[in-house]
Each structure stands twice: as C-alpha cells, then as structure tokens.
Amino acid sequence: xxxxxxxxxxxxxxxxxxxxxxxxxxxxxxxxxxxxxxxxxxxxxxxxxxxxxxxxxxxxxxxxxxxxxxxxxxxxxxxxxxxxxxx
Length: 87
Description:
- By secondary structure, this protein is mainly alpha-helical.
- It has one domain (about 1-85).
- It is about 60% helix and about 10% strand.
- It has three helices and two strands; from the N terminus they run αβαβα.
- It has helices spanning about 1-15, 30-45, 65-85, and strands at about 20-25, 50-55.
- Strands 1-2 form a two-stranded parallel sheet.
- Helix 2 links the parallel strand 1 (about 20-25) and strand 2 (about 50-55).
- The longest helix is centred in the C-terminal third of the chain and has 20 residues, at about 65-85.
- It is globular.
- The relative contact order is 0.16.
C-alpha cells in the first residue's frame, strides 16, 4: 500500500513541478477524501505548489447528516489550507 501512495504522490508532485493547476473533485466520501488528502499532503511538502481547485457540488438532496458532515469538513479543509499557506 505504501508504494501506491508514494506513486500517487509522485504523480501529483510532477503536476506541481510543471505548475499545472490540480483539480480535485470531492464528494465528502472516503475515496475522494483520500485523494484530496494526498493532494493536500503533497502540496504541503512542495516548495511552491501550483493552484489547487477543489470541486464540490451540493445537490440539495443529501441526507441531513451527510450534509452536516460535508459542511464541517469544508471548514476543516479551509482551515488546513490557511494554516499551510495554500490559499
């Protein structure tokens, strides 16, 4: 598993090295959250990451519990980005 993580981070790092914007679609679920975590962790380690665009679409039909979870996670993502000068 560690090797797959390293390979994914190397690919993300190449995008940052080439100054390509990195776009990450995020649903709030475990899979897209794992990808977003890899992108943000790699950005923190990079000397000058290119812009990161996080896309989330609120359909308005989510279960209220899921909706609250996603909104709380968005606050955490913003705080993390601010703390690590990614904004």
